[in-house]
Amino acid sequence: IGEEALKKIQEAADLKELNDARVAYLGKKSPIQAAMKQMRDMSKEERANFGKISNEVKQSIAKKVEAKKAELEALALEAKIQSEDIDISLPSRRLPAGSLHPITIVKNDLENLFLGMGYEVAEGPEVETDHYNFELMNLPKGHPARDMQDTFYIDENTLMRTHTSPVQAHVMLDKIANGGAQPIKVICPGKTYRRDDDDATHSHQFAQCEGLVVDKNITMADLKGTLELFVKKMFGEKREIRLRPSYFPFTEPSVEVDISCGNCGGKGCSMCKGTGWIEILGAGMVNPHVLEMCGYDPKEWQGFAFGIGLERVAMLKYDIDNIRDFYNDDLRFLNQFSGEE
Ligand code: PHE
């Protein structure tokens, strides 16, 4: 029986067959167990001898089972490792890459352009105080120009900023707090809010980029030269600008800046409503009262400032006619900008 059992165990091809063999030779119904029942009818010596032999047989079977089990398990592990082999030369699956949002592209372009002219980038809070958004921008309570910049109020003195102009005040007052008046050359891109009814050209949330230069002997010519450079770099060498007199409480004098129409080259077409020009931004010389409120002596310091709508720039640059396209997250729209940086 013992030899037969050892042979069966040795031949077991897998763990299941091995277990079957173990049950057959060591289980309650095994021939060894049956043989041991006959021990009752044996003489004392016979019984001792038989018991000894059958125990030895059982032990050698159990030993063999353990050895075979270890062998089969090692084989199974080896097979598993072989089947799960990783081929590092296999080309990986391509991960789908998104594209930059057109507003982000325009913001990056603006930043790179002005960084190249020696400007720094400054940021301010979107949740702003009445003081910074209006008072320091020379728009005291009751000022009629506040009507054009109605916004969302957090409480009586806290609001969603209506323009990036309050960052001008942050930058100037920061200089004053850190050692006194210093020349300034910054742009301040960021989100802005207004209580407008949304339509094809208006959105209650939009993006602007402020520009502020404060130094000694700054003139309107510096402003014009800077804007000309910006327009040519952003839209192409052929584009011209013109300044029209305008009004902003925080600049004096103030101008509205137009860019020659890229569609008709200034002759007049439907895109520029026959005028040859398209309005692009507001600008002016920093109002002496603003300089004063922000700690800069206007007898010593002058500055210019401008505010550009990023959606407007993107719409002109990419020929987009509905501002809502920027916010609808339609992949057919957004995918057109993949590959742009
Ligand atoms: N803050 C103005 C606006 O939002 C734009 C502007 C900025 C005009 C700086 C002049 C100077 O309309």
Automatic annotation (TrEMBL):
Mg(2+) binds at residue 252. One of its GO terms (cellular component) is cytoplasm. One of its GO terms (biological process) is phenylalanyl-tRNA aminoacylation. CDD domains: PheRS_alpha_core. Residues 58-87 form a coiled coil. Its main location: cytoplasm. One of its GO terms (molecular function) is transferase activity. Binds 2 magnesium ions per tetramer. It is an enzyme of class 6 (ligase). It catalyses: tRNA(Phe) + L-phenylalanine + ATP = L-phenylalanyl-tRNA(Phe) + AMP + diphosphate + H(+). This is Phenylalanine--tRNA ligase alpha subunit. It comes from Sharpea azabuensis.
